[in-house]
Write a structure and sequence with these properties.
The chain contains five helices and six strands; from the N terminus they run ααββββαββαα. It is of the alpha+beta class. It starts with a helix and ends with a helix.
């Protein structure tokens, strides 16, 4: 890594760790956070296209209405079975946590939607991670983190899915 990149990395890290970035998020702060956690980023205040491990994502902010969303396209609806859609809806309750699976423009999306001003730097970083994980686990565990709210009726089914996924990675 070049000297200039090292200086930029430490400068942004310092800025992100400062108390000013802990809350009172506005249209400008997400770009600084996304710059650090993404592979590429383009856009301007209120809307950025970025990628994480090659996955294209969008961050859209609306300071006037105090909203922010980070989204990633998961699948075209024509490629999603009814069973996958049902699993995704159940995951919205049990395992997708702060991210939800949603449908818009004939696409299934992983979507983190939250009031903008109340967000912290750590929540934005977590949102990016959860959107990426929800995209990656669609069709298997449908989860955004390792935490899953228990569903007594589906607990065994969830364990079977996780075991199958673990075995496929070996």
């Amino acid at each position: 890594m070049g000297f200039l990149k090292i200086i930029c990395f430490y400068l942004f890290t310092f800025l992100l760790l400062s108390p000013a970035y802990s809350q009172n998020m506005d249209n400008e702060k997400p770009e600084k956070i996304l710059y650090v956690v993404s592979d590429t980023i383009a856009g301007e205040n209120g809307g950025w296209e970025f990628s994480v491990n090659g996955l294209p994502m969008l961050c859209i902010t609306d300071q006037v209405n105090n909203r922010m969303r980070i989204i990633a396209p998961v699948r075209e609806m024509k490629d999603v079975s009814d069973d996958q859609l049902k699993e995704a809806m159940a995951a919205n309750f049990h395992s997708a946590l702060d991210v939800k699976y949603a449908i818009s423009n004939d696409l299934v999306w992983a979507a983190f939607i939250h009031p903008l001003k109340e967000l912290s730097k750590d929540q934005v970083i977590s949102a990016v991670s959860q959107v990426y994980n929800a995209y990656s686990t669609f069709g298997t565990t449908y989860s955004s983190t390792d935490l899953v709210f228990p569903d007594p009726q589906n607990r065994e089914k969830e364990q079977e899915k996780k075991e199958k996924l673990r075995r496929s990675k070996i």
